[in-house]
Amino acid sequence: MNPISMRGEQVYLVLGCGDVGFSVAGRLKERGVELVVVDRDVKKTEQLKEMGFSALVGDFCLPKVLKDAGISRAEVVLLMVPDFRATERALGTINRLKTELKIDPVVVTRVLDEAETAEAKRLGASDALPSSQILANFALSRFEELKGMAKEKRLRALLQELSGGRMAIMLQTNPDPDGIASGVALKRYAKAFGIDADIIYDGSIGLPQNRALVNLLELNLLRAEEVNFTGYTAFALVDVATHANCALPKNILPTIVIDHHLVPASEVGARYQDITVIGSTSTLLTNYLRFAAVEVDRATAAALVIGILTDTMNLTRGATPTDFDAFEHLMELADLDLIGRLQSPAVSPEALNVLARAIKGSKLKGGYLITNVGEVKDHDLIAQTADFLLKREGVMTAFVYGICGNVVYASARTNDVALHLGQALKEAFIPIGSAGGHARMAGATISLKAFGRISKKRDLKAEIDRKVGRKFLEVVGAVKPGVKRKRAKR
Question: pLDDT value at position 470?
């Protein structure tokens, strides 16, 4: 009997391959999971190998067989045998190997009734699933949950290793409710395993909902420029995956990255990384708390609800079954009055004035709305105005820009799935300023120096409209590129 060689870092073990075990293994294989099937039947394992499975013949109640099957790398172990005595023996062996190999996989057993469920959990199973019908379909209905449980175990092990230290939790530049709520949740999770943490941000917390979240939860967030990073033993990025969009010094590698935006793994470089493309990072943090059985107070649950609703546009954009499940779980715990107050924060007179100017000066062309709001005291009002104007009938993309201090700020929002705003703004404004963001929301900043020495406000407005407003329309294809006129010789 030769040990199974595996390509990846983690693997699923399916122990026992009767009708139910075979169905489960097949569903997992369809999802691209690396798995090893172990069964006592030589003919059955040979048939599995012919079908492209990694299979091992042997008694999975024996330590050597489980070691050869790769239990040291197993994220999830699925005991699919109907005989509870065999399950009991296998669980005993797995428990001994956990201690010997210092591993802690998720272990799911097959049981016949609720009495066996309680006994299986007492013997060390993470979960027990009664009835063959449930087991035959569990790979689809429980797959994401099992992945989440396995990830939580790995993060917990890392934090226990770092116990006693202090962690810097870094939010994205100009953090939104999803990032803020996720930071709060990670701080609570880390505390449960002996690590104190500070939540650190750069940029500003300007939108009314963001400020309300910080104020109502009485959060003590630290500004990055006031932080001495040498005082931390671990660094976590939440709702952001790289140095490019946060204030973590370039010479410090993150220890932990948890984000729901798609980023190539090669760009992340953390000891632990969870890049799961779902509706919100708040969903990921909800499940970390949930799977670790960390108690969540009503205010934190409310913040996580707002994080999910904000990034999924009230569960209408990019929401997955995992997001819906997390939302349902949180609503049983959250302070509903606080959720209402966070969803409807007070609007300042300045915000209303900027919105009025935006509406008055707006131009709509082929679903693209652009508007110059002039001078503003708080540049976050530009992003707030873009959020509001996207709701206007006939608008697919809103692009708002204006002056704050010596800088022109631009903010864009879209419902057009064919448009990636982050890339569009980079193409339009990187030559004269900085720009970036996500597919559905992005921003740019341009120094007034880029527009030359113009003394008259009317002339400056016209130049900004040309280099910012029209340039955006050209890049997205709403208007044809303008032809530069040559100055006549005198």
Answer: 95
CATH code of the domain containing 95: 3.40.50.720
Reply yes or no on whether the pLDDT at 101 is more than 60.
yes
Average pLDDT for 36-57: 94
Q: Is residue 189 located within the same domain as residue 329?
A: yes
Please say if the pLDDT value at position 488 is more than 70.
no
- Position 158 scores a pLDDT of 96
| DSSP β-bridge partners for residue 400 | 371, 411
CB 259 within 8 A of CB 281: yes
Tell me: do 339 and 379 sit in the same domain: no
**379 vs 304, 371, 422, CA distance in Å?**
26, 14, 19
* pLDDT at residue 6 is higher than 80: no
Gap between the Cα atoms of 35 and 69, Å rounded: 9
Same domain, yes or no, for 283 and 212?
yes
The count of domains in the chain is 3
Report d(CA 242, CA 329) in Å as an integer: 30
Same domain, 207 and 354: no
Residues 6+ away with beta carbon under 8 Å from 402: 354, 372, 373, 374, 375, 376, 379, 382, 408, 409
Q: Using the predicted structure, report yes or no on whether residue 385 has a pLDDT greater than 60.
A: yes
Residue 178 banded pLDDT, cuts 50, 70, 90? very high
Helix axes 84-101, 114-122, angle to 10 degrees: 20
Say whether 33 sits in a helix, a strand or coil: coil
Cβ atoms of residues 53 and 29 within 8 Å? yes
Quote the tokens at residue 56: 């091992």
Beta bridge partners of 110: 129
Domain membership of residue 198 as a residue range: 156-343
Whether 237 and 160 share a structural domain: yes
Domain boundary among 116, 141, 166: 141
Contact yes or no for 473/464 (Cβ under 8 A): no
> How many CB atoms sit inside 10 A of residue 321's CB?
11
Q: Residue 192: inside a domain, yes or no?
A: yes
Please tell me whether residues 336 and 439 are part of one structural domain. Answer: no
- Of the two residues 445 and 457, the one the predictor is more confident about is 445
359 lies in a domain?
yes
What is the bridge-based pairing of β-strands 35-39 and 54-57?
parallel
Q: What are the angstrom distances between the C-alpha of 167 and each of 69, 162, 269?
A: 37, 9, 17
Tokens of 134: 């449930």
State pTM to two decimals: 0.67
Last residue of a domain, one of 141, 167, 185: 141
Percentage of the chain lying above the pLDDT 70 cut: 93
- Residue 161: give its domain's CATH number: 3.90.1640.10
- Report whether pLDDT(358) > 90: yes
- Nearest CA-CA partner of 396 in 464, 477, 470: 477
Mean pLDDT along residues 309-316 = 87
